Amino acid sequence: MALQFDIAYAKLGHRHGIGVFNVPTDAVTSGFCDKTVSNITLSFYGGTFDLTLSFQMVDGGRFFHLSSVDLHYVEVPGIFPQTETPNAKRSASNVTLDMFRASSGKSYRCSEDRDFVLTTSVTLHTRLVHVQAFGVNKGQFSTAQDCGMRSSNNELVAVVTGGSLGGVIIIAIVTYFVCTRGRRTTRDGYTAIN
Question: Quick check: 171 pLDDT over 80?
Answer without folding.
Answer: no
